[in-house]
Amino acid sequence: MTTKIKVSKAKKSKIKDVDFENFSFGSVFTDHMFECDYVNEKWENPAIRPYEKISIEPSASVFHYGQAIFEGMKAFKDDNNNVFLFRPNENFERINKSAIRMSIPQIERNLFFSAVEQLVNLDKDWIKKGEGKSLYIRPFIVATDYAIQAVASQNYKFMIICAPATLYYTKKLRVLIADKYSRAASGGFGYAKAAGNYAGQFYPTNLAKKSGFDQVIWTDSNEHKYIEEAGTMNIFFRIDNELYTAPTTDTILDGVTRKSIIEIAKNNGISVNIKKISVQEIISASNEKRLKEIFGTGTAAIVSQVSGFQYKDEYFEVKDQNDSYAELLKTKLLNIQTNQSKDPLGWRYKI
Ligand SMILES: *Cc1c(COP(=O)(O)O)cnc(C)c1O
């Protein structure tokens, strides 16, 4: 069953104006967007139309109280021009988990899948083939009550926009382990893909950037003792020849890339320990020369390697590895995503 979506096509495509070899990710969008409104307790009037400005009153509650959630997923093209989404069901389930926590109405499966599939299909020329190229898909929901009352909105807008992507973050990252600020607290909404989780981390991240770091690795908000995640990526440590990553809790986002990398590692004979990891354990492993790799995982960059970390006043370097697990796992995952290898777990979703 599919949801009927009204489609109005763009008169002229903007694709010829884009230099696909040289553009800044996240600032170029495809020809169309999806839009649907929640009014009278129902999602109504789903439509795909040319990407353009939307009109919202200044009183819209998202501007005041920040009820906003989003997703990030990708579409890939294989050599025969088949288009695949990667594990879209995970994104569908997660947007509803985020919705519940932020008091936003959930979306029905048919609406989500029909919207994503029809939009991607219409803009499929924007999905380029080859090394790391893809289409980044950004579904999001914002509160649109026109009233500055501090209550959950009754009206919402669900939209999807798409941006062509190549693999970025190729440079290894220098990271700072947080010992003062926190991204999320127990009982809060760190596990939701909510806009506010990002707003709150820009200030401490900018401070870290001023000191020469690329990102912050967040620790638990009680004691700053245990590693959580990198704020846009989940984080893995390789100690000797085993991987370690924190279990997902209410302060950590349950990344699709994280769970995919865990499966791929296990299927390639790499053992993965999902356990609480203290900063002290990482420092000890580094001092004993057993800490071989640190990497982050997320849809945008897939796997981003870390070249070193600072904790309080000390910097610890992570040396390059000849047999990098990060490289291996990234290649294996990309090969599944782009239909260059078997897909034993059924992660590709052809559209
Ligand atoms: C989106 C996100 C991730 C990565 O999740 P993926 O599903 O792998 O893209 C990690 N941490 C945070 C806070 C995120 O918002």
Compact description:
With 351 residues, the protein is α+β, with helices and mostly antiparallel strands. It has helices at 61-65, 88-101, 109-122, 195-210, 256-267, 279-287, 325-337, and strands at residues 6-7, 32-39, 42-50, 68-70, 73-77, 83-86, 134-143, 156-165, 173-177, 215-217, 234-239, 242-245, 271-274, 291-298, 302-311, 314-317, 348-350. 40% of the residues are buried.
Portion of residues in beta strands equals: 25-35%
| Name given to the CATH homologous superfamily of the largest domain | D-amino Acid Aminotransferase, subunit A, domain 2
The percentage helix is: 10-25%
Could you say which overall geometry the principal axes of the C-alpha atoms support? globular
Could you tell me how far the N terminus lies from the C terminus, measured between alpha carbons in angstroms? 15 Å
SSE sequence, one letter per element: EEEHEEEHHEEEHEEEHEHEEEHE
| Structural domain count | 2
- Main pleated-sheet profile: 9 strands, mixed
Which structural class do the helices and strands define? Answer: alpha+beta
Q: Extract low-pLDDT stretches.
A: none
Q: Which CATH architecture of the largest domain is right?
A: Alpha-Beta Barrel
Oligomer: single chain
What is the name of the CATH class of the largest domain?
A: Alpha Beta
CATH fold node name of the largest domain: D-amino Acid Aminotransferase, Chain A, domain 2
**SS field, number of helical segments:** 7
